[in-house]
Design brief:
By secondary structure, this protein is of the alpha/beta class. About 35% of the residues lie in helices and about 20% in strands.
């Protein structure tokens, strides 16, 4: 890896998704089986990644498909176990989700409570990247998630929601979310600390990422990978390693190979060589 770049890691846990987006580049949808990534392998790969002598971001992305897929089949242990693996490596988990589960109160409560439990046990935060754009049409669902966080200060303490995918149509997206939120008694405000929502009692920060720093982890070549912060700003361009449930590893979403038991470091070297060959 380049000495001037940091490297991030992402795990594609499943190809199953409850949506069928026309723009999806991950070959995901409801027609796929969940086939969740093996957690023991996730722990091994993350440990190998951390042992590499390279500059790394401290955020680990869990993506899909829909990362909350296990909850849809009533497996409430998979995601908390994956989060614990990341916490054990002293890194920050980032769950990339479409947030549609906010429309199902029982499902939403299961997701928020189990994530809060494992985050609280570790005394650490979980980032929840919610894609908010014209493709997902999830404004009401996101508003319901916000309402639940306002009603539960413990959940709000350990879960930070970052709105993603709003770069090209931000005005309309914010308007749609504002209108949906108003229907649930949520008031938007802004002060010296930034933008926030309130129900008149509790407050919760509105955090959005115009630069797509975390959103594009593993999605494109030369994506901006930023260590998470409250402004959502990215620092420098970086590389990303993405590993999926079939033990395929990709570098910057371009070159890929099946690991076949090889150490992660060796796989990265092979992929770097492929990248150099492509440039020439």
């Amino acid at each position: 890896m380049s000495d001037t770049k940091k490297t991030g890691i992402a795990f594609k846990t499943t190809n199953w998704c409850n949506l069928s987006c026309a723009h999806c580049c991950e070959k995901s949808g409801p027609e796929y089986q969940q086939n969740l990534m093996n957690l023991d392998k996730m722990a091994l790969y993350l440990s190998e990644f951390n042992a590499l002598p390279i500059e790394k971001y401290d955020t680990v992305a869990l993506t899909g498909g829909e990362v909350m897929a296990p909850y849809y089949s009533y497996d409430d242990t998979y995601i908390p176990s994956a989060l614990q693996i990341i916490f054990n490596e002293n890194m920050t988990p980032c769950l990339k989700t479409n947030g549609i589960w906010g429309n199902d109160e029982n499902l939403m409560n299961r997701i928020l409570s189990t994530i809060t439990d494992v985050a609280g046990d570790n005394g650490k935060k979980v980032i929840m990247d919610v894609s908010l754009d014209r493709f997902h049409k999830n404004f009401a669902a996101v508003a319901k998630i916000y309402r639940s966080l306002l009603n539960n200060p413990t959940c709000a303490k350990y879960i930070t929601v970052v709105l993603q995918g709003i770069k090209n149509n931000s005005v309309r997206s914010f308007y749609d979310l504002f209108m949906a939120s108003s229907g649930y008694g949520i008031i938007w405000g802004k002060d010296i600390s930034g933008q926030y929502i309130t129900d008149g009692v509790s407050r919760y920060p509105i955090i959005y990422n115009f630069n797509q720093a975390i959103a594009n982890i593993g999605r494109a070549r030369a994506n901006k990978l930023g260590t998470f912060n409250l402004t959502g700003q990215s620092d420098i361009y970086g590389d990303c390693i993405m590993i999926d449930a079939k033990d395929r590893v990709r570098l910057n979403h371009i070159n890929a190979l099946v690991m076949n038991g090889r150490p992660l470091g060796d796989c990265i070297k092979i992929l770097e060589q492929k990248s150099k060959q492509r440039k020439h």
